[in-house]
Amino acid sequence: MKDIFILGIETSCDETSASIVKNGREVVSNVISSQVDLHIKYGGVVPEIASRKHVELIIPVIDQAVEEAGMRLEELDAIAVTYGPGLVGALLVGVSAAKALAFTIDKPLIAVNHIEGHIAANYIQHKDLEPPFVCLVVSGGHSHIVYVKDYGEYEILGRTRDDAAGEAFDKVARALGMGYPGGPLIDKAAKDGNAEAINFPRVYFEKGCLDFSFSGIKTAVLNYINVQTQKGEGYKVEDVCASFQWAVVEVLINNLITAAKLKGVSKVALAGGVAANSCLRSEFIRASLNNDFKAYYPSPILCTDNAAMIASSAYYRMIKGKVSDLYLNAVPALKL
Ligand code: KG4
Ligand code: ZN
Fold first, then answer.
1. Is the dihedral of CA 225, 229, 233, 235 positive or negative?
2. Atom of ligand 1 nearest to the CA of 182
3. Is ligand 1 within 6 A of the CB of residue 298?
4. Residue 335 lies in a domain
5. Localized where (predicted)?
6. How confident is the model at residue 185 (pLDDT cuts 50, 70, 90)?
7. Could you tell me if 20 and 143 lie in one domain?
8. What is the pLDDT of residues 298-319, one digit of tens each?
9. Domain range spanning residue 71?
10. Which of 106, 121, 180, 315 has the most neighbouring CB atoms within 10 Å?
11. Which residue CA neighbors atom 21 of ligand 1 most closely?
């Protein structure tokens, strides 16, 4: 069978990325230009700044991805792009570039859901992984437990009812004056802290419900910081980080184990930016040994936003004939 090369484009938040992936599994090039430095001083992503930066970067990033692959545009088999969920202005930059490129080289345009892309990062990392499996997708904007029945076929088993896990990490880090994005900073500080120092609340819903809620724990951390400060007792940042992280990880893993048992799967995966968290990864491995399932997770660079995962996901859409037309628009609140 002829090899299929897809160029993926990702601009849903603050990463401008383009990547060429062969047959959905092999990364030929993956260029990621992060805007984090631009947003740090605001403590989070500023949508208007993100869109403007994407406009500046999109062509150079695509050029670089094609050059690093040693290919000509005409050799590509399709153009894939994230069309949601995400920031509308940011998404539109990628969607417009993808449409223009697909039109110019006269190749199919494939629209990819960003959350689906995060799941597909596992296909790149683990060449042997095939559905069915259960996947925990945890990022700055989403926390879902998904049953991946087949390529492109999903059943949501649980989702956050308020903040996403990554959002909670970012907000707690901001309250601790640590900077942005908070997840990696909390992960690092927690290594020198005591995870049992403070007993932050864990939220579980009624039996059989695998939803999450992380706004309560975020508020509990903020209250703890205020009370300790008012009492003049202070607190150890590392202990707050470790205790907060442990509480979040415990809920994520417990619901994930329940989901895996519910579906009777032998394979379970992590995906999304928070899947780079070292505590989540080690607890996940432990859970896999205790509960007899095989654990899959992408390398950190494939956990956070990147276009390789978009190109991988697009491959499985393409072979099922799911291509888009040039009327494609960004859908900021797109559901899986
Ligand atoms: O997937 P991603 O790059 O973007 C979204 O789709 O949202 O995820 C970014 C999120 C941020 O909230 C960031 O703080 C979090 O992932 N994150 C982490 C770690 N690395 C990134 N959270 C916890 N521990 C980490 N090591
Ligand atoms: Zn993402």
1. positive
2. 14
3. no
4. no
5. Cytoplasm
6. very high
7. no
8. 999 999 999 999 999 999 999 9
9. 5-119+303-318
10. 121
11. 273
